Amino acid sequence: MRSVLQAQRATFEHLGCIVEDACPDLRGADEVFLTLRAWRSWNTLGPLLEKHRAEMKPEADLGDRVRGKAERFRHRQRDDPACRNHGADAAVSGEVRVHALRGEPGSPFDATIDWPKEIEGTTMEHYIAWMKSAYWITVTFCPAISVPAGFTPEGWPVGIQIVGRYRDDLGVLQDGPRLRAGDRLRAQAARYGNDLKHEAERQGAT
After folding, report:
1. pLDDT tens for each residue of 151-203
2. What burial class does residue 107 get, using C-beta atoms within 10 Å of its C-beta: 0-12 exposed, 13-18 middle, 19+ buried?
Protein backbone atom coordinates (compact mmCIF):
# COMPACT_ATOMS: atom_id res chain seq x y z
CA MET A 1 0.00 0.00 0.00
CA ARG A 2 2.81 2.41 0.81
CA SER A 3 4.28 2.11 -2.68
CA VAL A 4 0.87 2.76 -4.28
CA LEU A 5 0.36 5.93 -2.24
CA GLN A 6 3.95 7.04 -2.77
CA ALA A 7 3.39 6.84 -6.52
CA GLN A 8 0.66 9.46 -6.19
CA ARG A 9 3.28 12.10 -5.34
CA ALA A 10 4.02 12.30 -9.06
CA THR A 11 0.34 12.93 -9.78
CA PHE A 12 0.20 15.84 -7.33
CA GLU A 13 3.40 17.27 -8.81
CA HIS A 14 1.98 16.84 -12.31
CA LEU A 15 -0.94 19.01 -11.17
CA GLY A 16 1.48 21.75 -10.09
CA CYS A 17 1.48 20.99 -6.35
CA ILE A 18 4.50 21.31 -4.08
CA VAL A 19 4.60 17.99 -2.24
CA GLU A 20 6.21 17.82 1.19
CA ASP A 21 6.22 15.14 3.86
CA ALA A 22 4.19 16.16 6.90
CA CYS A 23 2.79 14.62 10.07
CA PRO A 24 -0.12 16.59 11.59
CA ASP A 25 -0.26 16.58 15.37
CA LEU A 26 -3.35 14.49 16.05
CA ARG A 27 -2.62 13.73 19.68
CA GLY A 28 -5.89 13.53 21.52
CA ALA A 29 -7.90 12.69 18.40
CA ASP A 30 -8.28 9.07 19.46
CA GLU A 31 -9.60 9.98 22.92
CA VAL A 32 -11.99 12.59 21.51
CA PHE A 33 -13.50 10.24 18.93
CA LEU A 34 -13.83 7.26 21.27
CA THR A 35 -15.42 9.46 23.93
CA LEU A 36 -17.94 10.90 21.47
CA ARG A 37 -18.68 7.42 20.20
CA ALA A 38 -19.09 6.05 23.72
CA TRP A 39 -21.52 8.83 24.58
CA ARG A 40 -23.58 8.16 21.45
CA SER A 41 -23.49 4.38 21.92
CA TRP A 42 -24.51 4.61 25.56
CA ASN A 43 -27.43 6.91 24.81
CA THR A 44 -28.53 4.83 21.82
CA LEU A 45 -27.85 1.25 22.91
CA GLY A 46 -27.65 1.49 26.68
CA PRO A 47 -31.39 1.03 27.34
CA LEU A 48 -31.53 -1.90 24.88
CA LEU A 49 -28.54 -3.79 26.23
CA GLU A 50 -30.23 -5.39 29.23
CA LYS A 51 -33.22 -6.71 27.24
CA HIS A 52 -31.55 -7.64 23.97
CA ARG A 53 -27.94 -8.49 24.86
CA ALA A 54 -28.13 -11.90 23.16
CA GLU A 55 -29.00 -10.25 19.85
CA MET A 56 -26.02 -7.88 19.91
CA LYS A 57 -22.41 -8.49 18.95
CA PRO A 58 -19.81 -8.77 21.75
CA GLU A 59 -18.43 -5.29 21.01
CA ALA A 60 -21.80 -3.78 22.01
CA ASP A 61 -21.15 -4.59 25.67
CA LEU A 62 -21.10 -1.09 27.14
CA GLY A 63 -19.15 -1.74 30.31
CA ASP A 64 -17.96 0.61 33.03
CA ARG A 65 -15.24 2.07 30.80
CA VAL A 66 -17.75 3.17 28.19
CA ARG A 67 -20.19 4.46 30.80
CA GLY A 68 -17.36 6.47 32.32
CA LYS A 69 -16.49 8.02 28.99
CA ALA A 70 -20.12 8.87 28.36
CA GLU A 71 -20.41 10.55 31.76
CA ARG A 72 -17.20 12.53 31.27
CA PHE A 73 -18.42 13.70 27.89
CA ARG A 74 -21.72 14.83 29.42
CA HIS A 75 -19.83 17.07 31.84
CA ARG A 76 -17.44 18.29 29.16
CA GLN A 77 -20.36 19.08 26.88
CA ARG A 78 -21.74 21.31 29.60
CA ASP A 79 -18.46 23.27 29.75
CA ASP A 80 -17.64 23.25 26.03
CA PRO A 81 -20.66 22.93 23.69
CA ALA A 82 -18.41 22.57 20.66
CA CYS A 83 -16.54 19.59 22.15
CA ARG A 84 -14.25 19.30 19.19
CA ASN A 85 -10.53 18.74 18.91
CA HIS A 86 -9.33 22.31 18.36
CA GLY A 87 -5.67 21.29 18.50
CA ALA A 88 -6.05 18.65 15.80
CA ASP A 89 -8.09 21.05 13.67
CA ALA A 90 -5.30 23.62 13.77
CA ALA A 91 -2.67 20.98 13.01
CA VAL A 92 -4.50 19.80 9.91
CA SER A 93 -5.55 23.23 8.66
CA GLY A 94 -2.37 25.29 9.03
CA GLU A 95 -0.80 26.80 5.93
CA VAL A 96 -1.07 23.60 3.88
CA ARG A 97 -3.99 23.57 1.46
CA VAL A 98 -4.56 19.82 1.60
CA HIS A 99 -3.12 16.78 3.33
CA ALA A 100 -3.00 13.51 1.41
CA LEU A 101 -3.33 10.53 3.76
CA ARG A 102 -3.97 6.85 3.37
CA GLY A 103 -7.67 6.15 3.26
CA GLU A 104 -7.43 2.86 5.13
CA PRO A 105 -4.55 1.30 7.09
CA GLY A 106 -4.69 -2.09 5.41
CA SER A 107 -5.97 -4.02 2.43
CA PRO A 108 -9.55 -5.34 2.32
CA PHE A 109 -9.95 -8.34 4.60
CA ASP A 110 -11.94 -11.56 4.28
CA ALA A 111 -15.66 -11.25 5.01
CA THR A 112 -15.40 -14.09 7.53
CA ILE A 113 -13.16 -11.90 9.74
CA ASP A 114 -15.07 -9.64 12.11
CA TRP A 115 -12.25 -7.06 12.18
CA PRO A 116 -8.45 -7.01 11.65
CA LYS A 117 -6.64 -7.81 14.88
CA GLU A 118 -3.25 -6.74 13.53
CA ILE A 119 -1.95 -4.54 10.71
CA GLU A 120 1.71 -4.55 9.67
CA GLY A 121 2.72 -5.93 13.06
CA THR A 122 0.67 -3.42 15.06
CA THR A 123 -2.07 -4.84 17.29
CA MET A 124 -5.50 -3.28 16.90
CA GLU A 125 -6.62 -2.75 20.49
CA HIS A 126 -10.35 -2.57 19.71
CA TYR A 127 -12.66 -3.38 16.84
CA ILE A 128 -12.64 0.06 15.21
CA ALA A 129 -8.92 0.76 15.71
CA TRP A 130 -8.24 -0.31 12.13
CA MET A 131 -10.22 2.75 10.99
CA LYS A 132 -8.08 5.30 12.84
CA SER A 133 -6.82 6.92 9.65
CA ALA A 134 -10.41 7.97 8.97
CA TYR A 135 -11.85 8.75 12.39
CA TRP A 136 -8.83 10.79 13.52
CA ILE A 137 -9.74 13.20 10.72
CA THR A 138 -13.42 13.12 11.69
CA VAL A 139 -12.76 14.86 15.01
CA THR A 140 -10.90 17.74 13.33
CA PHE A 141 -14.14 18.79 11.60
CA CYS A 142 -12.05 19.26 8.45
CA PRO A 143 -13.60 18.14 5.15
CA ALA A 144 -12.20 14.97 3.60
CA ILE A 145 -12.79 12.87 0.53
CA SER A 146 -11.41 9.45 -0.41
CA VAL A 147 -10.54 8.67 -4.01
CA PRO A 148 -8.98 5.61 -5.70
CA ALA A 149 -5.18 5.65 -5.70
CA GLY A 150 -4.36 2.34 -7.40
CA PHE A 151 -4.02 -1.35 -6.63
CA THR A 152 -1.69 -3.53 -4.61
CA PRO A 153 0.34 -6.24 -6.44
CA GLU A 154 -2.38 -8.67 -5.29
CA GLY A 155 -5.05 -6.59 -7.01
CA TRP A 156 -6.61 -5.01 -3.90
CA PRO A 157 -7.84 -1.42 -4.29
CA VAL A 158 -6.06 1.36 -2.39
CA GLY A 159 -7.64 4.70 -1.51
CA ILE A 160 -6.09 8.05 -0.73
CA GLN A 161 -7.76 10.54 1.61
CA ILE A 162 -7.69 14.23 0.66
CA VAL A 163 -8.12 16.41 3.77
CA GLY A 164 -8.75 20.12 3.34
CA ARG A 165 -8.73 23.14 5.57
CA TYR A 166 -11.52 23.66 8.07
CA ARG A 167 -14.73 24.62 6.21
CA ASP A 168 -13.03 24.40 2.79
CA ASP A 169 -15.46 21.74 1.59
CA LEU A 170 -15.55 23.20 -1.92
CA GLY A 171 -11.78 22.98 -2.23
CA VAL A 172 -11.82 19.30 -1.31
CA LEU A 173 -14.65 18.57 -3.76
CA GLN A 174 -12.56 20.25 -6.47
CA ASP A 175 -9.24 18.62 -5.57
CA GLY A 176 -10.60 15.05 -5.44
CA PRO A 177 -11.68 14.96 -9.11
CA ARG A 178 -8.51 16.83 -10.11
CA LEU A 179 -6.40 14.10 -8.57
CA ARG A 180 -8.34 11.42 -10.42
CA ALA A 181 -8.07 13.33 -13.72
CA GLY A 182 -4.37 13.99 -13.17
CA ASP A 183 -3.76 10.32 -12.42
CA ARG A 184 -5.43 9.32 -15.68
CA LEU A 185 -3.44 11.93 -17.67
CA ARG A 186 -0.19 10.76 -16.09
CA ALA A 187 -1.02 7.14 -16.93
CA GLN A 188 -1.92 8.11 -20.51
CA ALA A 189 1.32 10.07 -20.88
CA ALA A 190 3.30 7.09 -19.61
CA ARG A 191 1.54 4.75 -22.05
CA TYR A 192 2.10 7.22 -24.90
CA GLY A 193 5.77 7.48 -24.01
CA ASN A 194 6.11 3.69 -23.99
CA ASP A 195 4.35 3.46 -27.35
CA LEU A 196 6.81 5.97 -28.84
CA LYS A 197 9.73 4.08 -27.37
CA HIS A 198 8.50 0.77 -28.77
CA GLU A 199 7.90 2.32 -32.15
CA ALA A 200 11.40 3.81 -32.20
CA GLU A 201 12.86 0.43 -31.27
CA ARG A 202 10.82 -1.26 -33.98
CA GLN A 203 11.95 1.28 -36.59
CA GLY A 204 15.54 0.87 -35.45
CA ALA A 205 15.28 -2.89 -35.81
CA THR A 206 14.09 -2.56 -39.39
Report:
1. 888 888 888 999 998 889 998 888 888 777 656 545 554 554 555 455 556 65
2. middle
Rounded to whole angstroms, the Cα distance separating 92 from 164 reads 8
Q: Between the CA of residue 91 and those of 23, 25, 119, 150, what are the distances in Å?
A: 9, 6, 26, 28
pTM: 0.71
- Which residues, other chains included, contact 133 with Cβ-Cβ below 8 Å and sequence gap of 6+? 101, 102, 103, 104, 105, 161
Neighbours of 123 (CB within 10 A): 9
d(CA 162, CA 92): 11
> 150 in helix, strand or coil?
strand
